[in-house]
Amino acid sequence: MPRAAREDVGRAAAVRQHRSHSARARPGVGRGLAAPGAGRRSRSDRTFDLLHPDPSHRARRPRRERRRGGQLRRPLRRGLRTGRARGVDGRAGLTGSPLRPESPRPLAAPGRGPAARCAAAAFAIVLVALTIRAQYSGEVSVNAVVAPVTVRDDDGRIVSDVARNRFHLYVDGMEVPISDFAREADLPLSLAFIVDSSGSMAGRKLTACQDLVGAFLDQRRPDDQLALWTFGDERVVERFPFGMGWYLLPRVLETIRPWSTTALYDMIQRVPDVMERATHPRQAAILLTDGIDNASKLTAQDATRIAEGLDTPIFVLGVEPPPAVDDVETSYEDVLVLIADASGGRYRRIPKTEDMPAVVKALTDELSSRFIITFATSGVGVNKYRTLEVTVDGYRATSRKGYTGTLP
Description:
four-stranded antiparallel sheet, 11 helices, single chain, alpha+beta
């Protein structure tokens, strides 16, 4: 038999042997059933067959172990995770991470068993209940009382240069010594804007608030801090925290949208939270609202009593408050005046937009011309509301009306 014929016979025998081997390795072939992966052989598989004429090496390689990009792709096994899935090294979406075993579940440390967790949960429930009770009681117990004082002459002009020996402090009618005395003009300011963003502020009211906050940017000093909060119902939202670059504030103002009901009186008890991140000793809050309240759990009297115990004066700017009603003894605007006076601040009605710079300058001058009086309480005796009065020889003084705590 010629050599070429012998090679053809040998090649045909090899093909038959390979087909029988594939049929035994993949059940279903030869019985009218398509073998898994039949008709889907890739170019790399065909190249592999050409390079390996021996039928024993021409079995189909597992699809999941093909080489791509110079790397061998292996199947994931149970209990293994990739860096992409688990965020290895704290970076989500890490590419090219090696396979790593899943971290074992940590054992319970001493004191962290079921009994300890139940005890901690019970303690947390009691703590939350006490906190809620304290929040709605309006009681503020302090060890040191700060009283910002604004001094005016008989014509109502602000006086910024007064000697310390002219100041007198009275608690429950008894004169007490002043522990510390300072002028606000020498201190940087932490100023928080609290804007009413409820549904009643839609339209020109909210626009006036945005314009006023923007006008304060032109009057600020380099070391001053600004913050912006909004409120509607029970939610008080921090929009712009203390310490952020002031140049971003105009962009934040544009994002405010009116929504929901108004819980103005409940917001007064959140003023300490608003000023929590303030770092300067000279602090103040400016409240911009129309005075309408239709969702508070607290009453106007509760809000006034809480304002009396605040260390931060609230300067209230009334944005078109509704007129008084004949059958209602106290109007919305009257409540705003009470809250401002109780905290040691001042109430002003926002005029027309073109008069806004004058209002901002007057308020800025007042904030820069106050005096800070501080005195310590004894911590002994009954915690209750105490009246506070500051007088200045030859002038009129405005300060907070009282605090809740013990006597000095």
